[in-house]
Amino acid sequence: MKKPLLLICCLILLFITGCETRESVECIAPANAGGGWDLTCRALGNVVADAQLIEERIRVLNMPGAGGGVAYAHVVTERGEGEQVLVAASTGTTIRLAQGLYGEFSTDDVHWLGAIGVDYGMIAVAVDSPFKTLEDVVEAWRTDPGSATMGGGSAVGGQDHMMSLLIAKEAGIDPAQLRYVPFDGGGEALAAALGGHIALVSGDASSNQAQIEAGTMRALAVLSEKRLDGVLSHIPTAKELGYDVEWPIWRGYYAPKGTSDETLQKWYKVLEQTEQSEAWADVREQYGLQPYALIGEPFEAFIQQQVEELSVLSEEMALSSGG
User: What is the pTM assigned to this prediction?
Assistant: First the structure.
């Protein structure tokens, strides 16, 4: 009797934990939960699972630190031969590489898989903030550059920091005089703003959208060429307000350098299928992303070009590792 009972118990256990018996892929989000990188991993995992695009399930691993640098170093040094790893990336990744802030590592140390959506920078405040418009913030900076402390989910010199610096520069204010508080993810920055610890959040539209819809945050400007579609369409662009600043944020992925050609081809196909799916269109609408697809070799070439361009911009803003 003991053996049949043991067999039944094992079968029940397998049924309960059946999803764990499948091989899994780790999608590393280089920040804490709640920000753009976390969304990039979780949204892909949900769509891929629902559409059954791969046999494995995608498991999200949050790995915050150094504006994505901790995750980048981990993948290069510890996961070089990993076949079951991909990492969320964005313009924030390339700007840190451009500034030499990932140490000895470069764009050549990983495989750049593709980008399947684009987000835009946004300046937002808590709904009870005394700052009602972007001009209110700029006037506060003119009076006392340290008075309106900004925060974001990137490290100092990262893209969230850069957005506000560019607006200050457009307004004729010395960007070096502004105060910026870095957080490990957009979720932490939003919490700090809601708690009154910082005056404004410099981040991305997708991370801010839920709080804006809930009425706890107020967007002052979106850093796009034109107003966004959908629920964020009421938010003016920085250009409309007199500040010629745009900050598109592609949402994509990279993989370890040792990933096989077969696995790379699999990921290219998965990203193409995901981007073309109705489920991904729903994700874009839900999180304020805009259509964008650049996969495989064209994406690799784009990354190299963007790092070169951002290196020049960072030197102009005195944010490179050498300046």
Answer: 0.83
